[in-house]
Amino acid sequence: MLQTIIQVSNMIFKPIINLGAAPIMLIVLTLIALLFGVKWTKALEGGIKLAIALTAISDIINILTTAYQVPLDAFVKSTGISLKIIDVGWAPLATITWGSPYTLFFLLIMIIVNIIMLALNKTNTLDVDIFDIWHLSFTALMAMYFGANLLVATILIIYIGVLKIINSDLMKPTFSDLLDAPDDNPMTTTHLNYMMNPIIMVFDKIFDKIFPWLDKYDFDSAELNKKIGFWGSHFAIGCYLGIFVGLIGRQDAKEIFTLAFTGGVCLELFSQIGSWFIAAVEPLSQGISDFATKRLKGRRFNIGLDWPFVAGRAEIWAAANFLAPIMLIEALVLPGNHIMPLGSIIAMGVTPALLIVTRGRIIRMIIIGAIEMPIFMWAGTLSSPFITHVAKQVGAFPSGAAGHQIAEATKEGPIEQYLAYLVGKASTGEITFLLYAALGLIAYGLIFWWYAKQMKKRNAAYAAAKEAK
User: pTM higher than 0.85, yes or no?
Assistant: First the structure.
């Protein structure tokens, strides 16, 4: 039965998935807009704008990562330390995961779960980010590698996936606040990197109790720009960070200038492209509003996109660039770590969640990011045998990595990777791992329940503030 479902899933989705992330989102957003009664020209316009925005974000991240790779690599070589696991970044991992026939099966399962949750009024979020299902599939495949069967792996990702969708509803008011977007703007995200929010919130609450005085020295990009003009702009912040990376990499003056200007233009473009996401979903937003008013007594729906619609917030990139050298230093001295973070040195699996929980307080983002970085690198070390094995199986192992294992140092969902390992080992019948897996799954649910309570309090405060206005 399961094999039949897998075959059907592949038949339905494989031709679409092969197009890549941007064309997928063009098709999905356009079709959903049409279903909500949007005029076809407007629906297509929104889909094209979203595809362009996603392509632009991806290209700029690639420019920034490539530019910083050389000086950061030089910094690593100057330490004289070599670690055995090569950080290949996210793209090879996505390719490897989508190479599995099970990924499309997991996509079909999560579409069904999302529809059921919407029908039962357990969520208001329609998840359209189908490309990033590979993060959940990665978790399930890792559990299977370590011993779980398909049924157990499927139950695991349904558990994680339900919480992930609930989280998208919890975060929606914070996204609206950070983007200064109206309440009826439907953008939120179901991306797995935001499942680090509960862990980050623990540290954020510790800051509230012990280090509240640090907030006196904090800022967000908008406030800094108001106070000191150009010197607090996205251009300037990018230049500062480029200079910093050039200096620690011992680059010459010409290269430092190049890095500074590259950083400046990338951060400014990020801020511009962030607004494209809002424009892209405007036709769908209006269609949903009209549909809900006529058919559903005004019920509001959210649309779960990929995370880059918040890429315009400079704090994401400022924190990522400050964390890059911190991550490298930690990798060199961290017990139990065997991965050198280079391919994912611009830590996009880390900083978006930091932005949401701290609401852009950059000092907190950097300090909490530095504290949680070992969680990611240990997860990368843990998952490397699985990634290496599957990469060789599907013929996607990088030719330049011969003699090494591969992984990603800042792979989204590090806690989920630990759960996959424990569930996989528990499935082999080892009593110790049965206990650890049970405790891990219970702890995962409890900390999310606590986090959800905190987010509901925050959302109530947002609502009260708007009512007061």
Answer: no
